[in-house]
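User: quick one, fold this
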Amino acid sequence: MKKINRIVQAAPVLAMLVFQLIFGVIPVLHGLIAPIFPMLTVVLYLILGFSFQNWHPGWLVFLMIPVFYAGIVGGYPILITILFLLSGFIFDTWHPAWMLYLTIPIFYAICGNIIH
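Assistant:
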């Protein structure tokens, strides 16, 4: 039951991160939102805080700003850091979550082969 409560607590934060990620991936939306993305992030943070009392870990949505402008390939290490912090803050799984960082060189090796 405790784990379910933690998942419910993390759901709004994850939803906001996915929402931000969608705007970064779809080119048409990216072009429309790019000038106001930081302000949109502030609004999302305030919604998380006032509606769901998720001031912490809701602040993680601010880490999506550099991911939005760098793209998935450039922002992958930041995405991994967000997942690592969420895993630690919500589920207290700091130890196994560090292995997410091992995916960074693998990701860039695969992307390098695909791009070239």
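User: anything notable?
Assistant: The chain has a mean pLDDT of 88.
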